[in-house]
Amino acid sequence: MSTVTRSTLDDLLRTEGKAELIGGRIVHYMPSGDLPSASAGEIFVSLRQYAKKKKKGKAYPDGVGYAVRELPSGRESFSPDASYYDGPLSRDRMCFLKGPPTFAAEVRSENDYGDAAEEEMAAKRMDHFAAGTKVVWDVDPEARTVTVYRAENPTKPTIYKMGDTAEAEPAVPGWKIKVKDIFDV
After folding, report:
1. Domains defined for the chain, CATH in brackets
2. What pairs with residue 145 in β-bridges?
3. Residue percentage of the chain with pLDDT more than 70
4. Cα-Cα end-to-end distance for the chain
5. 97: Cα separation from own chain's centroid
6. Which residue(s) pair with 149 in the sheet?
7. pLDDT tens for residues 115-151?
8. How far apart are CA 150 and CA 32, in angstroms?
9. I need a labelling partner for 115 at 20 to 30 A (CA). Which of 54, 70, 121, 143 fits?
């Protein structure tokens, strides 16, 4: 009988590519295509400008790791496509951020459609909220929409379409971005 060794955050830190630690397993994610990556980049750039102007918090692009206490689902980390964090920074800035992102943008890739994907994304959003994330975006490049979920009312999202300006209140106070600017890249 073989035993399965449980992976740790230290193992995740040494893992190449985008991955998260869930249930003691390192879950790898495939690279994103052109539009999802460019859209995530636009969100990051706008968040970065906001953080620098406000001199509060930090914006992060795809690939950053957030270490969280183990959640009931078994999740111990997040790696959103773009995020904003206003918590304390560790002395060792080479390690994962400790705690959840304040705001997370999850941009759909080509395999993020269908019933199974919807269930997986909903479960991840609930994990975000259980960890302490205030706002999670579901960014859909095919529909060209930004669906904003808030921790205080996670079943009543706000949907922004082309022509609208999306926001992430109360996680990123006063920050806004035109939906057109996210997708017309």
Report:
1. 32-61+79-183 (3.90.1570.10)
2. 140
3. 98
4. 53
5. 13
6. 136
7. 999 999 999 999 999 999 999 999 999 999 999 999 9
8. 25
9. 70
